[in-house]
Amino acid sequence: MYEFEFARPTSLAEALAALKAEDAQPLAGGQTLIPTLKQRLASPSVLVSLSAIEELKGVRREGDTLCIGAATTHAEVAREAAAHYPALAALAGGIGDPAVRNRGTIGGSLANNDPAACYPAAVLASGATVVTNAREIAADDFFQGLFTTALEEGEIITEVRFPIPQAANYQKFEQPASLFALVGVFVARFADGVRVAVTGASEEGVYRWESAEEALSKEFRPDALMGLRMNPANMIHDIHGTKEYRAHLVGVLTRRAVAAARG
Amino acid sequence: MPKDHGIGASQKRREDVRFLTGRGRYTDDINLPGQAYVAFVRSQVAHGILKGVDTSAAEASPGVLRVFTGKDFEGVGGLPCGWQVTDRFGQPMQEPAHPVLAQGKVRHVGEIIAAVVAETYEQARDAAEKVVPDIEELPAVVDMRAALADDAPKVHDDLKNNLCYDWGFVEENREAVDEAIRNAPHVTTLELVNNRLVPNAMEPRVAIGDYNPGTDESTLYTTSQNPHVIRLLMGAFVLGIPEHKLRVVAPDVGGGFGSKIFHYAEEAFCTFAARQLKRPVKWTAQRWESFMSDAHGRDHVTKIELALDKEGNFLAVRTETLANLGAYLSTFAPSVPTWLHGTLMAGNYKTPLIYVNVKAVFTNTVPVDAYRGAGRPEATYQLERVIDKAARELGMDPIEIRRKNFITEFPYQTPVALVYDTGNYHCTMDKLIEIADLDGFEARRKASEEKGLLRGLGVNCYIEACGIAPSNLVGQLGARAGLYESATVRVNATGGVVVMTGAHSHGQGHETTFPQVIAEMIGIDESMVEIVHGDTANTPMGMGTYGSRSIAVGGAAMVRAAEKVIAKATKIAAHLMEAAPEDIELKGGEFIVKGTDKRIAWGDVCLAAYVPHNYPLEELEPGLEETAFYDPANFTFPAGAYACEVEVDPETGKVTIDRFAAADDFGNVINPMIVDGQVHGGLGQGIGQALLEGCVYDENGQLLTGSYMDYAMPRASNLPFFTVDHSCKTPCTHNPLGVKGCGEAGAIGSPPAVVNAVIDALHRAGHTHVTHIDMPLTPARVWQAIHG
Ligand SMILES: Cc1cc2nc3c(=O)[nH]c(=O)nc-3n(C[C@H](O)[C@H](O)[C@H](O)COP(=O)(O)OP(=O)(O)OC[C@H]3O[C@@H](n4cnc5c(N)ncnc54)[C@H](O)[C@@H]3O)c2cc1C
Predict the structure, then answer these.
(1) Does the pTM exceed 0.90?
(2) Relative to the CA of A81, which of B204, B470, B600, B709 has its CA 20 to 30 Å away?
(3) B219: part of which helix (H) or strand (E)?
(4) What is the 8-class DSSP label of residue A234?
């Protein structure tokens, strides 16, 4: 690691002030950032830890919306969201291993926007709202390609608001080494239609599979997807799978997610 | 009643008390006063001309003591290779120089270009980033076939080409084998890859060099399976330090699997730099450095042909293998694809004619050397895969075709030099059928089918050769080392025993099993016996631990030394009891005059040896301490039969291992629980190779699997509960304990079982076009095979 200063504010206001320093960077669970620092791939001047800020933590229900503080760990979401939004809780409970889940946070995961991460699929398929210190960003506008989001310099996520669907399911097919999603599909059914978000597969990051949404909105059954094929053209190709394989998995996992969501 | 003491008792591992409570003392736990730290600058290109290294900015960086480059090592020896293979034309292998720090050229990603020594590790790394190598990149040689093309770039400019050797075995059989295959009623051919693996010991490598200018003595603390070998190689061949001025200490070692046998550049560097700087110099590998600097394993590309008659009797085997050696010859690299591989091609079968051809190739990749099993997994995999394929082609049951060809009479002279002293392959196969519940397979298959999954069963046998020996034979085969083992048994005045062994545990549990043997021989409690290992200053010259040799060779040396001690103690007891030594027996910790009630306790005899007031000083020296060196008459031959059941998800290609059974014959067993554990670990590694692990370079020689994000290690969740058994026992006929060794069996025997099972599952589901899938059988590969 390179040398850096360390701040651990207890309020959002203090954190924002600390982040004004040049090359300051927020530190959430550190599950992505600390390995990056150890490999000397980043050199922040100040790390501003979000872990002591109570107002950024916790799971709260407001009517049909589930609000999750940005600094809430995956383990907490797995526990606290289970009664309200089981598919989301299950997704959180399937991230990494217990050590990762006890440190890693939803805000860190979304800000990082790893193309193989799980949360982006839930946020996009739920049509959630990403709340920052400055504004509210619709999921459809938040994710902007690999490791890229709508966040501005110094802007931090404070909360994520999930509309709770009637039925939902996340199917994750693990990359054998990292156990991140080789392909992950989140299907959410709302009164006004179905949303399907795919992670892990595309060179452009998490995306919505619109033709599947259309078919499933008409008829929420696995068979409704018959004849639909994902185009492999923009899929990721690496040592863990070809474009064709990933495109194929998108279909398989979407069908399985629909079947599971129907219960 | 299971025994709770001595040979055959499942005693808990005493070393685990410290390992499990954080009190192990590993090399990285050692910190010496005044210690400096080194950060290595490693090549980021696979192949290039090293025109120069600009170290000026690094030298000016805070805390830097000195920056070393290849120039500093110009008068220093290179890293030696410990085995010379002779090719099929009688010529010695091509043997390139192997500099400690790169000179003139870089030949693989990870090769050390410069070394920065500084007051702290972070300062060393800061400065290392300021070292600027001037490299003219050359096209990299990665693929072995391409490496052998006439116009291929040369890894070593001073060699004729990239071929280290073209080895034929047994060369005299070549034509007879060709003829047998030409005339055979049936020939089954299979082309396969034995995937390259990264060893991944849990403890990364560490080296600390120390030098005392007052005594001119050097000490190297290192993560090694064989400190004496390192002392000899580094002292005599690299740095020119006489052995009496050089001490090598390997304290607790956290796994090695072969990767810590070899003498590495970092060890020589730290020892050298400590002498130059007159300060201790420490290096602890980062995990990314392990991936690009620990010797890799396997990496063979093979074509095997099995000739059979119509009844399924094996007539001949012919193989052609390309073996990747990487950029340089690691310590024992040349022996792995040859003597540890070709000699195993008979397997458990009485194939009369065998010919093995191996072309060993230099490439711009990390050196490849012995890794758990070393050559024997490669032999077993190809043989057991081709037998399965042959059975399918002939419409025979895979178990029956094996049984039909089993060797049943011992000693058995194979056509590939080895003489199997003993074995009983039907016994392990019978046992396997029982413990794997093969009768229940069909019912389980139906249950899988109802879930939409394809169940398959894979069965195979294996044989391995452990405890490579004898020294005079391996010397003829090209070994530049002896392969005996040593032990000193020191009895203290109050009867406690310390065994100083040349073997060295890196996870095998020697501190538990070795005392069990001594306790059995003397009749004392294990708590009275202590094991000392891993330090050249207080153990006799020994060859260390690898090749499942510790108990078979090291244990035998200890038995020989203990026998000498007991013989002397018997004479002392005879004197004390005024009886003839022939009339005395040692039983339950007492010397007894046969047929009388005269007895004297072990401890009293030991005291007499060190307080020799009443003692036959004219005939016997005082004291009770003996050393023995044991050079075995032959290898040992553990063998067994394994069965694997998998479920394949045809939609995704994902393979799940539902059950795995292993029936092994290890001869006599000292501690059954530890043997179970060794088999479990080996199965984990073998299943890892079969399903998950694969080291991949791109065409430019960049390592694509350089971290756990891309290199898939087996996890507990990838493994089923294992059913293991070692009740079939044909004790080794030529070592005093009748033991054979068990450390590598699991890793050798399991990969073909897994692959056979997957192919079986696909065939049962009608995907009969799939005759083979190369390891690792990732979901993507299996899916591709089904749809390809
Ligand atoms: C072994 C392992 C396995 C994993 N497996 C999975 C998996 O299966 N699926 C999966 O989805 N993920 C997985 N992860 C990633 C894990 O979910 C991480 O927790 C996540 O990527 C980052 O969250 P974090 O809280 O640790 O963020 P950090 O590492 O602390 O930060 C990540 C980035 O986000 C920024 N940041 C953090 N919080 C905020 C905020 N509130 N506002 C703005 N920017 C912020 C940081 O500055 C940094 O750039 C795994 C990680 C590991 C180590």
Answers:
(1) yes
(2) B709
(3) strand B217-222
(4) G
Q: Stretch B704-721: mean pLDDT, rounded?
A: 96
- A interface mutation test: which of B291, B652, B657 has the most A CBs within 10 A? B652
Residue B466 pLDDT grade (very low, low, confident, very high; cuts 50, 70, 90): very high
User: Pocket of ligand 1, candidates A1, A33, A156, A172: which has the most ligand atoms within 8 Å of its Cβ, to mutate?
Assistant: A33
Q: Do A253 and A224 fall into the same domain?
A: yes
Helix, coil or strand: residue A46: strand
SS (H, E, C) B433-492: HHHCCHHHHHHHHHHHHHCCCEEEEEEEEEECCECCCCHHHHHHCCECCCCCEEEEEEEC
Output the CA angle A12-A17-A22, nearest 5 degrees.
130
Atom of ligand 1 nearest to the CA of A42: 49
- Tokens 């021989």 correspond to B521
Domain span including residue A25 = 5-48
User: Which residues of chain A make contact with B704, given a CB cutoff of 8 A?
Assistant: 239
A232, B651, B775 from A249: Cα distances, Å: 11, 8, 21
CA-based radius of gyration for chain B: 27
The CATH T-level fold of domain B300-469+634-786 is Aldehyde Oxidoreductase; domain 4 (3.30.365)
Q: Is A15 in the pocket of ligand 1 (CB under 6 A)?
A: no
CATH code at A30? 3.30.43.10
Chain B residue with the nearest C-alpha to that of A173 = B652
- Decide: residue B707, CB within 10 A, 0-12 exposed, 13-18 middle, 19+ buried: middle
Residue written as token pair 């430019």: B700
Give me the tens of pLDDT residue by residue for chain A, a chain 263 residues long. Answer: 899 999 999 999 999 999 999 999 999 999 999 999 999 999 999 999 999 999 999 999 999 999 999 999 999 999 999 999 999 999 999 999 999 999 999 999 999 999 999 999 999 999 999 999 999 999 999 999 999 999 999 999 999 999 999 999 999 999 999 999 999 999 999 999 999 999 999 999 999 999 999 999 999 999 999 999 999 999 999 999 999 999 999 999 999 999 999 98
Instruction: Identify the helix (H) or strand (E) that includes residue B782.
Output: helix B779-787
Domain identity same for A61 and A153: yes
- Helix and strand element counts for chain B (H, E): 19, 28
Whole-number Å distance between alpha carbons of B467 and B543? 11
Q: Angle B481-B741-B558 (CA atoms, 0-180°, nearest 5)?
A: 65
Q: What is the pLDDT of residue B198?
A: 98
Number of domains chain A is built from: 3
Closest CA to B15 of B510, B674, B743, B500: B510
Q: What is the mean pLDDT of residues B124-130?
A: 98
B39-60 average pLDDT score: 98
The number of residues in chain B equals 788
So where are chain B's domains? 27-138+202-255+260-293, 300-469+634-786, 484-630
Fold of B484-630: Aldehyde Oxidoreductase; domain 4 (3.30.365)
Cβ atoms of residues B2 and B196 within 8 Å: no
The 3-state secondary structure of B652-670, one letter per residue = CCCEEEEEEEEEEECECCC
Q: What is the CATH number of the domain that holds A91?
A: 3.30.465.10
B704–A177 C-beta distance less than 8 A? no
Select from A37, A77, A112, A180 the residue to mutate for testing ligand 1; criterion: most ligand atoms less than 8 Å from CB. Answer: A112
User: What CATH number has the domain bearing residue A190?
Assistant: 3.30.390.50
Fold of the domain spanning B27-138+202-255+260-293: Aldehyde Oxidoreductase; domain 3 (3.90.1170)
- The separation between CA A183 and the C-alpha centre of its own chain, rounded to angstroms, equals 13
